[in-house]
């Protein structure tokens, strides 16, 4: 039976990943910081492991991995999916704390997740680490510089770790989704509309490129 971790797996893309693995009969463990989403996930999938933890906090991430490794006895797939949209602002108006907070979740969290996964998978001699990057990781993204910088870095980390871990039987890949409809994207659109001086309407999303 496949053993899977999905970070930020209680909603959005992460939940879709977790549900797909569960539908294929995998053992699945998720972590998330959203208690409401976690409760909803647990109600729907009581046999899955669901833990409140931030991957940007090393102690919380390690405690989550400890619990899952003890329960599963190993890991076959780790989806480093946790991320945040971060602030929307012109670079000259960007607050350093906002920059750092975005980088911490999107890049530091991905690093910490991959580091822990690599330790397990190298010992096993197999496994898959799957990063969630973004189309922002392969193109520019005005007014979203910390998010774009972090997601570009994730692509670079993907390519580097694929070279580093491939000889040990560990595959490393990333997916680069475009705009995904939902509450998070609504917030992103509202923030971008504010910084651009545009109306804060859902219809404003048509001004954003959508990739499939």
Given as residue ranges, the uncertain stretches (5+ residues, pLDDT < 50) are 202-212
The first-level CATH class is given as Alpha Beta
Terminus-to-terminus distance? 31 Å
Strand order of the largest sheet: 3-2-1-4-5-6
Q: Approximately how much beta-strand content do the residues carry?
A: 5-15%
Order of helices and strands: EHEHEHEHEHEH
Shape: globular
> Any guess at the CATH architecture?
3-Layer(aba) Sandwich
The strand count comes to 6
The CATH superfamily turns out to be NAD(P)-binding Rossmann-like Domain
Q: What is the strand and helix layout of this fold?
A:
Layout: E1 3-7, H1 12-23, E2 27-32, H2 35-44, E3 49-52, H3 58-72, E4 77-80, H4 96-124, E5 127-132, H5 145-166, E6 170-175, H6 183-196
Parallel strand pairs: 1-2, 1-4, 2-3, 4-5, 5-6
Helix pairs in contact: 3-4, 4-5
Please tell me about this protein's structure:
The protein is of the alpha/beta class. It has one domain: NAD(P)-binding Rossmann-like Domain (Rossmann fold, 3-Layer(aba) Sandwich). It has a 6-stranded parallel beta sheet with strand order 3-2-1-4-5-6, sandwiched between helices. Strand 1, helix 1 and strand 2 form a beta-alpha-beta unit. Helix 3 runs parallel beside helix 4 and helix 4 runs parallel beside helix 5. The radius of gyration is 17 Å and the shape is globular.
């Amino acid at each position: 039976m496949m053993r899977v971790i999905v970070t930020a797996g209680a909603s959005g893309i992460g939940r879709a990943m977790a549900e797909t693995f569960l539908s294929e009969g995998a053992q699945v463990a998720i972590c998330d910081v959203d208690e409401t989403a976690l409760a909803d996930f647990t109600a729907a999938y009581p046999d899955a492991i669901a833990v409140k933890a931030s991957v940007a906090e090393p102690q919380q991430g390690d405690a989550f991995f400890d619990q899952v490794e003890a329960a599963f006895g190993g890991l076959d797939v780790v989806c480093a999916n946790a991320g945040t949209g971060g602030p929307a602002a012109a670079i000259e108006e960007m607050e350093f704390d906002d920059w750092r907070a975005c980088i911490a979740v999107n890049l530091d969290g991905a690093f910490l997740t991959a580091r822990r996964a690599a330790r397990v998978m190298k010992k096993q001699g197999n496994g898959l680490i799957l990063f969630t990057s973004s189309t922002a990781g392969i193109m520019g993204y005005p007014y979203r510089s910390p998010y774009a910088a972090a997601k570009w870095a994730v692509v670079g980390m993907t390519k580097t770790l694929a070279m580093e871990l491939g000889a040990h039987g560990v595959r490393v890949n990333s997916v680069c989704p475009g705009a995904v409809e939902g509450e998070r994207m609504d917030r992103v659109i509202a923030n971008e509309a504010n910084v651009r001086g545009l109306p804060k309407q859902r219809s404003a999303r048509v001004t954003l490129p959508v990739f499939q």
